Amino acid sequence: MFEVDTYLRRLGYSGPREATLATLRKLHRAHLLAIPYDNTRFPEDGGALPDNLADLDHDLTFDKIVVRGAGGICFELNLLFQRLLDEIGFETIQVSAGVHQGRGTFSPALSHRFTVVSLDDVRWLADVGFAGPAYLLPLELSPAVQTQYGCQFRVTENDGLHTVLRRSRSTDWHPLYCFELDARKTSDWDGFTKQFERYLDDAVIANTTMLCRADERGHRALVGRRYLTVEDGQETVITLTDPREYQRVVCDLSHSIDGTFYDAAPNTCCP
């Protein structure tokens, strides 16, 4: 059953519970440090995707992610984080996005879900379920450059379409995802699963293991055997060819709170 105290213990958070920017920042960072993105256990039984990707049972998801210590995908992690923020008293909406796939293309607009938080007439992007290096702290919905842990971010807007851009010390600006600032209803995902599966059939990342977690200085992400680390804004990419080294990285990225490991095997993926 969803329970705030248990959730906060999972995050290692013991600070204030007021709906302030300081609280939001601390919770967002704590979540990314504590809980990895992991697409290898969605669905947990290895079966078919749910008919509605966003219509997940809160208590079952809470048990998987918080109680049993697994990672999850955006529809699980941001579902729980938005519920946590709502319980504390934040004003939130769920938003969907298309994730950048390279060469100016994006996945379908309902492929990714995250949360927008309104505080004192300022809107903040909160995303604890992105499958790659992104922002560790909530991002202001603003074109102004925002620096976090050696990387820079900004949010541009064109005809109502917002794009989150990121650059590191070693890369130029590139998009993470694009979205319209509309509050999504869970029912908006009705019928999307079949479209998503057709998209995955043609995507380069289909059936690819994707693991990502934050640390004190940046991010580490594994896509297939491509291992990306970001440390104080410096990016390094290597291909893991040694099976033992690959398994070590998988275990490191997907370890649970009790020290046990979840075997990472390709199942399905959420870009």
Mind sketching the topology for me?
Layout: H1 4-11, H2 21-34, E1 37-38, H3 58-67, H4 74-88, E2 91-102, E3 105-106, E4 112-119, E5 122-126, E6 139-140, E7 146-148, E8 151-158, E9 161-167, E10 174-180, H5 192-202, E11 210-215, E12 218-223, E13 226-231, E14 234-239, H6 243-254
Antiparallel strand pairs: 1-11, 2-3, 2-4, 2-10, 4-5, 5-6, 7-8, 8-9, 9-10, 11-12, 12-13, 13-14
Helix pairs in contact: 3-4
Q: Which structural traits does this protein have?
A:
globular, Arylamine_NAT_domain_sf, Arylamine N-acetyltransferase fold, transferase, 271 residues, Papain-like_cys_pep_sf, arylamine N-acetyltransferase activity, alpha+beta
Termini gap: 28 Å
CATH architecture: 2-Layer Sandwich
Taking Cα atoms only, what radius of gyration do you get, to the nearest Å?
Answer: 17 Å
Percent helix range:
25-40%
Overall shape: it is globular
Pfam families: Acetyltransf_2
Family: Belongs to the arylamine N-acetyltransferase family.
InterPro entries: Arylamine_N-AcTrfase, Arylamine_NAT_domain_sf, Papain-like_cys_pep_sf
GO molecular function: arylamine N-acetyltransferase activity
